[in-house]
Amino acid sequence: MNIKYQQELISLLTNIKNIKLMNEFIKDILTPTEFEEIIIRWQIIKQLSKGVSQRKIATKLGVSIATITRGSRELRDKKGGFWKVLKMKNNLCKKLI
Q1: Same domain, 74 and 51
Q2: In angstroms, rounded to a whole number, what is the distance separating the alpha carbons of residues 6 and 2?
Q3: Number of separate domains in the chain
Q4: Does residue 18 share a domain with residue 52?
Q5: How many CB atoms lie within 10 A of CB 71?
Q6: 15-60, pLDDT tens digit by residue?
Q7: How far apart are CA 52 and CA 60, in angstroms?
Q8: Cβ(57)–Cβ(48) under 8 Å?
Q9: Residue 50 belongs to what domain range?
Q10: Interval 82-96 mean pLDDT
Q11: Looking at the structure, do residues 3 and 18 belong to the same domain, yes or no?
Q12: Rounded percentage of the chain residues whose pLDDT exceeds 70
């Protein structure tokens, strides 16, 4: 993957502050299946971080254990991006309450 292209996309995404515009952009750039997969992956990460079992997640979301296992492996890195974003999300939710 070309790092310049990757950085350009990440920069673009982080600069879209309007939720409606972000939603429209994501729906335009991804196929409906790709968008759904990202949504499900995020739900997997959130549930794993709360200690929900892989079997319960698989049943609830209708995904394979293999799909969940990848997320589980990534969550083992406590300094990784998933944990940083989960922490950011939790702090944002606290501010909204």
Answers
A1: yes
A2: 6
A3: 2
A4: no
A5: 22
A6: 999 999 999 999 999 999 999 999 999 999 999 999 999 999 999 9
A7: 11
A8: yes
A9: 31-97
A10: 73
A11: yes
A12: 93
